[in-house]
Amino acid sequence: MENYRKARTVEQPSLCPFPDLPSSTPEVRVKDGSKIQNLLRFALSRMEEKTASTDHPGPHEGSEVSAGPGENLCHQIMFTGVGHSVVKAITCVEIMKRRVHGLHQLTKLVYRTVQEVWEPLEPEAGLESLTVSRNVPSVWVLLSRDSLDKDQPGYQAPGSFDALWAQALKEEAATPKHGPRRKRGGTGAGRTDGAGRGKGPRKHPGRPGDPRKPLGHAGGGQN
Question: What is the rounded distance in angstroms from the CA atom of residue 131 to the CA atom of residue 138?
Fold first, then answer.
């Protein structure tokens, strides 16, 4: 592929895995450049309390947030993430469940087709454009104040949290922020080389071949 460059990337739309979901349910689309703080500000404003419609934030940088018509306070909200943004979407969901208690969760993992169009660097060489299709994972998480079907795969009751996410937080909290400090210098164990160095008279070795001067003749005069 050294003779090609990526021209554009096209994501094929995928159907919502929740067929009976009302059209007014807000959808938070998490992307690579999305800021978790902005996403949670919007989601919490729709699930915690009623606010004026003028406070409805627009799409944030690096993310797409779409909300259906109706009252600002919702009983359900959906998070979606594709590829590298899957982890960030799950993080938003776990924080939401800790802020808003009593939420039922239903998670669906599907694959979305992404097409990459590659153009030749030198079209006059006779090379044609290439289209590469890849299947990337996509997560859909539905949070609801109302009860959901407990027999559905991916259902989590209120109060249950992702085990891997909770374990990661536990390990991060147990890790000390500053490692043990190493002592500089000293004469501890293992420092045998050079022990006692600096004690006693300092010797100045003469140059090879230079005669040593007799003691008591500092001026170098002749007797």
Answer: 21
